[in-house]
Known about the structure:
Blueprint: H1 7-60, H2 63-71, H3 79-115, H4 121-146, H5 150-174, H6 179-188, H7 190-200, H8 203-206, H9 215-246, H10 249-261, H11 263-280, H12 286-309, H13 314-320, H14 330-352, H15 360-384, H16 386-415, H17 420-426
Helix pairs in contact: 1-3, 1-4, 1-5, 1-6, 1-9, 1-10, 1-11, 2-3, 2-4, 2-9, 3-4, 3-9, 4-5, 4-6, 4-7, 5-6, 5-7, 9-10, 9-15, 9-16, 10-14, 10-16, 11-14, 12-14, 13-14, 14-16, 15-16
Amino acid sequence: MKAFKSAGLKQSVLMILGNGVATGISALSLILFSRVLGPESFGIFSIGFSIMQLVVRLSDFGVNVAVQRSVAPEFETDEKKTRGLLAAGTRYKLIFSLVMVFIGLWLSPVIAGVWLKTENIKIVKLGILLSVLTVWFEYIAVILQSMRKFVSSVVMSVAQALAKLAGAVWFFVGQISDAVLSFWVYGLAPLVGVVIGGVLVPKWAKWTVFEKPVYGPIKKVVKFTSISVIAAAIGDNIDVLMVKSFLTSYETGLFAAGARISLLISIVAYSLGTVLSPRVARYKTKEHFSSYLKKSILLIMVLLVTAIIVIPLAGPLVWLTAGPSYMEATRVVAFLLVSGMVVVSTTPIVAMFYSLKNPEYFAYSGILQTVVLITANLILIPMHGIEGAGMAKLIARVSVFVFSIWFAIKAMKKQFNIRLIDELASSRSVLGSDK
């Protein structure tokens, strides 16, 4: 079937498998840490992890999406402009990351004492400082993906994952149950990926920060995607911190273990997005966009069915990974697995907005997710404990999915005069399409 011979599908499979391997290795390292630390100490570890990821996302401020969207259509045809775009993106990245680290360290006593109600301020500060390595690891990966160097991106991801696993094995064999020390080892691992990625980036792109910057295209996208990225930062990491603010470190460890188990599904969405987004950004005609839409409809249908199938896997996954001491998290894992599949189902729709001239979508969807997630957590965690946090995550993901479909229908009609009902009627023939 011709649809299965497309370059986009092959690249999607490569990224999903490659990042799946990297994430699987990282997940294994977290499983080993969770087993040796136990729920309570793993709860402390997870505070550092969530703080680190939160600062990473806030430091991005939409720059990664802006660079990917701007560089992907230009790097093969206009090297000078590409240099300028990378110069602008790198300067923004430097400023935003330094500002966020400074603000985070300044607020760390308030974050630890008032919000998280923990005396372990060291884990909070450590999460903020180590975020810098992940910030630059992800930015280098985005540059490689924008130039469709997917193999290089996978190599650096697997390398840093193996570094995490080596540290976890060391702790597990030695039965070292120090939460802060284990987080040090885990947080330093992205440095391996940064070094390897720096070598793999094309020579002409290494020092573009010193080129004359082209701010226009980057700034235009950042203006809208910054809100979306801030929302994603909250959506992906605030739940662990909100659980800690309401409940104990033990319960936080249970929920965090469940969140880590469902991480593999999230990486499928990430991998799919890194391939689809730069490809769709180049679609300028109704025919190309229509062909993409037909394939996306079929993919989304398959993914939604899969979301139901994964529910019975929650219990066995907890038992085989985190271990018997985390079995109380089984229902939470079920909610998180389904919400992860909803995110994957939303990814093909999100990619459309790299071609559709509606960058405000990223801002609107981000605001919606943030409001729904925080509100649902505030209501459901006191009522249902860690299961309430799982419910809140699912409600937020479904809300964004429905909103994305509605907004995409409007945007497609306006820009390409494409009616979704017509595409649904003709989607059965997509497998025999020449596109």
